[in-house]
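Batch manifest, entry 17 of 40.
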Amino acid sequence: MAHEAKLTSVQSNTRRRSFAGYDYSDLPFLTIVLFLLATGILMMFSASYATAIDEGEPGTYYAVKQLEMAGVGLVVMFFASHFDYHAFGRFWISFGIFAVALVMLILVLFMGTSTDTGVTRWLRIGPLTFQPSEIMKFAVVVFFSMLISKNYNHMQDFKRGVLPYFLMLGVIAGLMMMQPHLSGTILILLIGLTLVFVGGAKLTHLGGAGLAGCALLIAAILLKKNYFMTRITTWLDPFNEATSAGDTWQTCQSLIAIGSGGLFGLGFCESRQKYLYLPETKNDFVFAIVCEELGYVGAVVVILLFALLVFRGLYIASKARDKLGTLLVLGLTMHIGLQAFLNIAVVSNLIPNTGISLPFFSYGGTALIMQLAEMGIILNVSRQANIEK
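Output type: structure tokens
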């Protein structure tokens, strides 16, 4: 009887673990991702409506395209959640991803598409236009996770366990600062340093290398002195009348949008700033429209959703069955969490305007597909993790 009861329990657990075809991947994490995705598409629709009409397109133009990319991304997420993450533990796979991303970072300097401000971050291949930095974020997580998991016993040795990672991060930072892309550089450095720290590196080694990295970052900023000094000056005093019509216009309009929302907002699709007052409402500054239309309460809800995503991701990382799984989930979770924090900080003028998108909200097919693919990998780790299902 005891054996039959145990067998019945196992069968019941198996049925529950196969819920919705996900072999019962972590349902709370999946729910948070879907909530963020749905909210993001709705808010991007509202934020992009006026821009689309101004460009001679239907008001739903950008929302439909984003919805199409979301559909592709969900399919990619589904397959990624069923693709054994241990494949990233093979050197040739992880290194191949990293090498391709590195080549793209080099190509964008010579073949990239530039903006009016002299920023070159986009690479066009056929009908596709994307930022190689988005692929590099994923590549750093995958490649570093593989190397650290294989060399875990050597991580406290500076030459073998720390120096190679800092050299790679230095090359990446140098290439990205040539675009220039300060926020993306900071994000990748933070992700890489977090993985090295969790991998077992000594704090003294991290501190010394961190100081060297700061020195190199300052040197890179000095090479683009005019660009970055303008950013910093206008950040400190965005409402200065001498510059508000030019370099600080975007920041000022963003702050006006945030303030206009009040506690409960003007209502969905009722934003005023999106009517060509605030530039880039569908991209980097979509959160300003969230604040204007949904108010302080809606903004806090969105922030809490990102916080829940990070906390649940860290929980999955702590329950992963091996170091590779832990590092992959940690790195991918930190990518989304840190990028969301940096975007919200830019929109609210807590840090200088550096141009960084809000995950799941900002318009961009390649970025959205990559983010959903990353969420699929986390779900795959959760399927094999020691989590109470």
